[in-house]
Fold:
Amino acid sequence: MKKYKNKKRSEMKMKRKRIMGFFLALVMFIGCLPLNPIASYANGDVEINEKNFPDENFRDFIDFFIDEDNNGFLNHEELDQIDQLPLNGGSIKFTNLKGIEYFK
Structure:
C-alpha cells in the first residue's frame, strides 16, 4: 500500500512539473512578442486609422494631403516623398502627432 502511495505521489509530481514546464514555455513565448506592434502590412502600407493616427485632425490632414490615391493607406511612395509636414501656422490644431514616425 505504501509503495502505491509513493508511486501515485511521484506521478502527480511529474504531472505538475510537465504542466509548469508548459506554462513557463508559454510565458517565455508570449514574452518574446512585441508589446506595441506597428500596424504595417506585408507590402509596407500603413493604414490611416485611429490606431496609427489617434488625433482626428492629424489623421484628416494625412488623409487629405498625403494619401494621393485616396485608398486609406500610405504606401512606400507616399511615405518616401514626404520630407516636411507643414503642421504649424494654420487654424487646425493637433494634440497628438503619433503616426509621424512612419515618415522618414
In short: The chain has two domains: 1-33, 46-102. Confidence is low (pLDDT under 50) at residues 38-42. Residues 3 and 103 are 70 Å apart (CA to CA).
